[in-house]
Amino acid sequence: xxxxxxxxxxxxxxxxxxxxxxxxxxxxxxxxxxxxxxxxxxxxxxxxxxxxxxxxxxxxxxxxxxxxxxxxxxxxxxxxxxxxxxxxxxxxxxxxxxxxxxxxxxxxxxxxxxxxxxxxxxxxxxxxxxxxxxxxxxxxxxxxxxxxxxxxxxxxxxxxxxxxxxxxxxxxxxxxxxxxxxxxxxxxxxxxxxxxxxxxxxxxxxxxxxxxxxxxxxxxxxxxxxxxxxxxxxxxxxxxxxxxxxxxxxxxxxxxxxxxxxxxxxxxxxxxxxxxxxxxxxxxxxxxxxxxxxxxxxxxxxxxxxxxxxxxxxxxxxxxxxxxxxxxxxxxxxxxxxxxxxxxxxxxxxxxxxxxxxxxxxxxxxxxxxxxxxxxxxxxxxxxxxxxxxxxxxxxxxxxxxxxxxxxxxxxxxxx
Length: 416
Known about the structure:
The protein is an all-alpha fold. It has 18 helices and no strands.
């Protein structure tokens, strides 16, 4: 196992944070940009918002295993740097887009190159011991949340001050700076003896899924991850439009609310996740995450007033422990020379879920918020998401049984 480098670990954390800042910067302006380019109202343009997210996810689904396998063969560094550089180009394309078609080209390109998060997870797995990965993935999740604290808040303010295109150019600049920083700072984490040959049979979504389907100890937790992605995409797909439609929020208010979501996630994942895992174990921490995510989505579904939405943001923050803990579980159950493939397959599975989920979620929001809706209920998408989150409990319990893990055992094994 490679020795952890302070600068390298910091770079990976900063990379995830800056990428999420870039994403967060543009979230508050997507409704306004889509209404500008399409000439539709927010209630109608939300459908295009779902299609935009689905395009990104589809390309990520197709390319994820290839990127993961490339990182297992050639190392994490070149894949990370190529991804970061291409993100800068994507943001520029979106910033200059004057038609919906160009906007979709930009998101498709980002989907192909966005191996950053999965490759960052593989990098962390390279330089940490199995028993430390829950806490390490928590730092990744916290960086994710921190990016969402700064990005939406700044994006909303920049948009109100300089227009809807300005956040895209700011995001491109951040990605460019991160690329230059990584070029001079980031060492390789995967030593030559731990690399494996590139195999096209496994470097595609179907091949990767077939491979991990033969490993039930991992497969059931990947199903949990996929269902979680399906449910959790209600946030990026509908939060901004939901705020405009239900509460009449401006770009600044959308950004402020998302910043609070990110702040809560960062506090939980960086400050408390390691302590929670140490107290109750990995398996029980996952169970707590499932419970709080379900409660949060139910709360948002029935939050008829803006202040109620803010009340349930801390509940969703506790639910933020779910992603890092599942990642730690499946990483601990996977051989060292297949961490990149695992993270690529994981990213593809989540992307496959997100191909369909934004369309489902945005169509649900549209159907229950339009003027002639048979039942007017803008929280319908969050109610659907809560149902999907509750379904995660089934494969989770089956996965525990496949690994001989008892959720309420007095003693827990290291993998837990």
